[in-house]
Write a structure and sequence with these properties.
It is a single chain. The protein has a domain at 10-19 and 34-58. Helix content is 73%, strand content 0%. The chain contains 2 helices and no strands. It starts with 7 loop residues before the first helix and ends in an 8-residue tail after the last helix.
Length: 78
């Protein structure tokens, strides 16, 4: 299996959209009442938060990559 980078922005976006979907499904099933306009700030706020988290994670990833590139090579003792 190929390894991939962890992307926390996608995790946050997925969690917010999943929450909105569960609320919408519960409202459609009649389990509880959720105002339709309450879902809009949840989705928009979740996408904004996901973008901010993605930008922070990208800058951290770039800094670590640059620090690793500038670090002196380590010697392996055998």
């Amino acid at each position: 299996m190929l390894r991939h980078e962890f992307q926390p922005g996608r995790l946050v976006a997925g969690a917010c959209l999943l929450t909105a979907g569960v609320l919408f499904a519960g409202d459609a099933a009649g389990v509880w009442r959720v105002p339709r306009l309450a879902l809009v700030p949840l989705v928009v706020g979740g996408l904004f938060l996901a973008g901010a988290v993605g930008m922070v994670a990208g800058s951290v990833r770039r800094r670590r990559r640059a620090a690793r590139r500038d670090a002196p090579p380590t010697r392996i003792r055998t």
